[in-house]
C-alpha cells in the first residue's frame, strides 16, 4: 500500500484558481464517495479551506496521473489549468507534509491554529463517510498528536497572528483609532468571530453582524455588543459600514458592484475598507475598482502578515525538529506492518508444535512416566523441533555463501558476534 497526496495552496495558486477547486460541504461528501470508488483508491481524505485544497489517499498502486485527472474532471476544469498549480507527495513525503500542515508550518500565517481544527473537521467527515481505513486513520490521528506536542513544546502560536488579526491591523493603518468606526461582519464562522474579537479589543464603536441564519448572527453580535441582521438586509446597512469583513460559504458573490456603488454615494464618498476572506469570493472583483473603496482578499493580506512573523521563526525551527523525529517514528511503525503476517504465521506454527507435544507429554504422564522424564522429554523435543528448520536453512545459507542471511540470524536471535 502506498500513500499519495496532491493539491494546491496559497503559495502555488492564486485565489482565482483556488476557488474553482474548492469543495463545499455538500459536494465534499459526494466527492469522497466518488473518489473512493476509483479503482486505485483504498482510502481518502479531502481538505478544502480558503487557502488550500488537498487530497490524501492510500493506493494499491502508483498512478498519480489518473487521480489528478479525477480532480479536474470533478470540477469540470481543463487539466492544463491545474497541472502547473499542483504539488504532490509520496509515502514519507505525505507524512512530513501532513505534519507540517496540521502544525501550521505550511500556512500563510506561520503557526496559525485554525488549520488544526479544519484538518480535524475534514478527517471527521471522511471517517463519517467511511472513506478512511487503518492507515489514514492512524496517520491523521498521529498528526494531531504531533500538532499538540509542537504547540506545547514551542512558542509557535504564542503571538496573535491570523488573517483576521492582519485585517484589523490594516484597518488601524487606514483609520487610526477605531473608537468612531462602524464595522459590518458578514458570516458567523470562526474567522469572522476572530475578526470581531480583535475589533472589539481595539475599541470599535459599533458592530453589525450579518448572517444567513439570523439566530447565529444574534449570538455573535450579543457577545460583542453588536447588532444582527440577515444577508437580505445588507443593502440597507452597507452605507453605515466603514469596515466590511466577509467570510461565508456562498458559492456566488454577496456584494456586487452596484450595491457597493450606491453605498459609497450615500456615504458621500467617505472611504470604505473591505476585506474578503472567503473562497469563493464574497465580494465581486469589480468592487475593487471603485473610488473610495479599499478591497483586500486573503492574498492581499500576505504582506501585512509577514510583519508579524518574526517572533515565530525560531519556534518554527524547533517545530521542524520535532516533526523530523515524529516522521521517522510513524514511517518505522508503517514499515513494521509488513512483518505482521510473518509474525502471526510464526506464532501459529509454534503454537501448533507446542500443542502437539503437550498432548504427547500428558499421555506419557497418564501412562505412568515419571514427571521429571516427561519434563526433560518435552523441553528437549520442543527445542529440537523449533530449531530444526532454522538450522537446516542456515546450513544451506552457508553452503550457498549467503552471509547476509547468517548475519541476519545472529541479529534476530541476539547471538554474540563471531
CATH architecture field of the largest domain: 2-Layer Sandwich
Beta-strand content bin: 5-15%
Residues in helix, %: 40-55%
Q: Reading side by side through the largest sheet, how are the strands ordered?
A: 7-6-5-8-9-10
By secondary-structure content and strand pairing, the structural class works out as alpha/beta
CATH superfamily of the largest domain: Glutamyl-tRNA reductase, N-terminal domain
The top level CATH class name of the largest domain: Alpha Beta
Radius of gyration: 31 Å
Assembly classification? single chain
What's the overall geometry?
Answer: elongated
Distance between the termini: 38 Å
Integer tally of domains: 2
Residue-averaged pLDDT:
90
Query: Looking at CATH, which topology of the largest domain would you report?
Result: Beta Polymerase, domain 2
Question: What keywords describe this structure?
Answer:
17 helices, 2 domains, Rossmann fold, 4-stranded antiparallel β-sheet, alpha/beta, 10 strands, elongated, Beta Polymerase, domain 2, 6-stranded parallel β-sheet, 418 residues, 14% strand
Explained architecture:
α12 (257-266) links the parallel β8 and β9 (272-276). 36% of the residues are buried. This protein has helices at 15-18, 25-36, 64-74, 79-83, 92-102, 114-128, 134-153, 163-175, 190-201, 214-223, 234-237, 257-266, 302-306, 310-336, 340-366, 371-399, 403-412, and strands at residues 2-9, 41-48, 52-59, 87-90, 182-186, 206-211, 227-230, 243-246, 272-276, 293-297. The radius of gyration is 31 Å and the shape is elongated. The mean pLDDT is 90. It has a six-stranded parallel β-sheet with strand order 7-6-5-8-9-10, covered by helices on one side. Strands 2-3-1-4 form a four-stranded antiparallel β-sheet, with helices on both faces. 54% of the residues lie in helices and 14% in strands. The protein has two domains: 2-159 and 311-337, Glutamyl-tRNA reductase, N-terminal domain (Beta Polymerase, domain 2); 163-306, 3-Layer(aba) Sandwich (Rossmann fold), CATH 3.40.50.720. The protein has 17 helices and ten strands. α15 runs antiparallel to α16 (371-399). The longest helix has 29 residues, at 371-399. The chain has 418 residues and is of the alpha/beta class.
Amino acid at each position: 500500500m502506498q500513500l499519495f497526496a496532491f493539491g494546491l495552496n496559497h503559495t502555488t495558486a492564486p485565489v482565482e484558481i483556488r476557488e474553482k477547486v474548492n469543495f463545499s460541504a455538500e459536494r465534499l461528501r459526494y466527492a469522497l464517495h466518488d473518489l473512493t470508488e476509483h479503482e486505485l483508491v483504498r482510502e481518502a481524505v479531502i481538505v478544502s479551506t480558503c487557502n488550500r485544497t488537498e487530497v490524501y489517499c492510500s493506493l494499491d498502486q502508483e498512478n498519480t496521473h489518473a487521480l489528478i485527472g479525477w480532480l479536474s474532471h470533478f470540477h469540470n476544469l481543463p487539466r492544463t489549468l491545474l497541472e502547473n498549480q499542483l504539488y504532490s507527495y509520496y509515502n514519507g513525503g505525505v507524512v512530513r507534509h501532513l505534519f507540517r500542515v496540521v502544525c501550521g508550518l505550511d500556512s500563510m500565517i506561520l503557526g496559525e491554529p485554525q488549520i488544526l481544527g479544519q484538518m480535524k473537521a475534514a478527517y471527521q467527515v471522511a471517517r463519517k463517510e467511511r472513506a478512511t481505513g487503518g492507515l489514514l486513520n492512524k496517520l491523521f490521528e498521529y498528526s494531531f498528536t504531533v500538532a499538540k506536542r509542537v504547540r506545547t513544546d514551542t512558542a509557535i502560536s504564542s503571538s496573535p497572528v491570523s488573517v483576521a488579526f492582519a485585517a484589523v491591523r490594516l484597518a488601524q493603518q487606514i483609520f487610526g483609532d477605531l473608537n468612531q468606526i462602524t464595522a459590518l461582519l458578514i458570516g458567523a464562522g470562526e474567522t469572522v468571530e476572530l475578526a470581531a474579537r480583535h475589533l472589539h479589543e481595539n475599541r470599535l464603536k459599533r458592530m453589525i453582524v450579518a448572517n444567513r441564519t439570523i439566530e447565529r448572527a444574534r449570538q455573535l453580535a450579543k457577545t460583542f455588543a453588536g447588532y444582527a441582521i440577515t444577508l437580505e438586509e445588507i443593502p440597507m446597512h452597507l452605507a453605515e459600514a466603514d469596515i466590511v469583513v466577509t467570510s461565508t460559504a456562498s458559492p456566488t458573490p454577496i456584494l456586487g458592484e452596484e450595491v457597493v456603488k450606491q453605498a459609497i454615494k450615500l456615504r458621500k464618498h467617505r472611504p470604505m475598507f473591505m476585506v474578503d476572506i472567503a473562497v469563493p469570493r464574497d465580494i465581486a472583483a469589480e468592487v475593487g475598482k471603485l473610488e473610495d473603496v479599499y478591497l483586500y482578499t486573503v492574498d492581499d493580506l500576505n504582506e501585512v502578515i509577514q510583519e508579524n512573523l518574526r517572533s515565530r521563526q525560531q519556534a518554527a525551527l524547533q517545530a521542524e525538529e520535532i516533526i523530523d523525529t515524529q516522521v521517522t517514528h510513524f514511517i518505522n511503525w508503517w514499515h513494521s506492518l509488513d512483518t505482521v503476517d510473518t509474525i502471526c504465521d510464526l506464532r501459529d506454527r509454534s503454537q501448533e508444535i507446542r500443542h502437539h507435544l503437550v498432548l504427547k507429554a500428558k499421555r506419557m504422564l497418564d501412562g505412568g512416566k515419571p514427571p521429571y522424564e516427561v519434563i526433560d522429554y518435552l523441553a528437549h523435543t520442543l527445542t529440537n523441533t523449533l530449531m530444526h528448520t532454522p538450522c537446516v536453512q542456515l546450513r544451506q545459507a552457508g553452503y550457498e555463501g549467503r552471509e547476509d542471511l547468517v548475519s541476519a540470524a545472529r541479529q534476530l536471535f541476539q547471538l554474540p558476534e563471531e
